[in-house]
Amino acid sequence: MEKDADRITKDAMAALADNRFKVAIPLLQEAAMAGSAVAANQLGALYEHGQHVAQDYTTARKLYGKAAQAGLAHAQFNLGFLLHTGRGGDVDLVYARHFYAEAAKQDEPTALLNLGILLARGEGGERDVRAGYAMWERAAGLGEKLAAFNLGMVHAGGHDVPVDFTKALIWFRRAKRMGHPGAEAECAKVSDVMSAEELEAAGAALAKDDAARAGLS
Asked: Which of 36, 75, 78, 147 could form a disulfide with 68 if both were Cys (CB 3.0 to 4.6 A apart)?
């Protein structure tokens, strides 16, 4: 049965890639029924966004739930997001936090970002700002630009940490490199109030980042 589900899923994904949705959707349904977490998650995404099926958040939740219980990180994030935003049912921040945490264990970047938000705000459980910021650092390390931007705002504004413009500029510049649209303006604001020594320290830290990416350190 598992091999059949995998084969059908493969055929379904190939049909999706070719935009043959009339072929792909029945195959996804068949594969999901046969136990394919990948198919259930993909079908859930089609229902969530109303792509070639009628938009149905309730059905999306059920499909994501099936895939999430099988341990698929992206499905765990997707389910967490619907629970977080109240799409397809009531807002449930406790379970949203739970499923974000499960996806975060597998380094799903956006789950790390959103888990950090809930931890920092104390939503869906106890407030733990330090843990929330740690989630953002992990997410930023995986290329999540909003996490890097948020960390810049944290250090620039002194949100539960001392104001540190050097750290703020480092995070804003990282966010800029990742493509965050607001990061360049924040870099300019922070740079305007920094000393030459602070700017030099930030530049050295970013040069170290570049060296690490290039495998030179």
From this structure: 75
Distance CA 171, CA 40 (A): 37
State the angle between helix axes of 129-141 and 165-178 in degrees (0 to 180), rounded to the nearest 10.
40
For residues 38 and 28, the answer to whether their CB atoms sit within 8 Å is no
What are 17-54's pLDDT values in tens digits? Answer: 999 999 999 999 999 999 999 999 999 999 999 999 99
Residue 6 CB neighbours (<10 A):
16
What separation in angstroms does the CA of 28 have from each of 18, 24, 31, 128, 185?
14, 6, 5, 40, 44
Within the chain, residue ranges assigned H as helices are 2-17, 21-33, 37-49, 57-69, 73-85, 93-104, 109-121, 129-141, 145-157, 165-178, 183-192, 196-213
Q: What is the pTM of this model?
A: 0.91
The residue behind tokens 């104001």 is 163
Q: What is the DSSP letter of 162?
A: -
Closest Cα to residue 167, out of 208, 126, 201, 211?
201
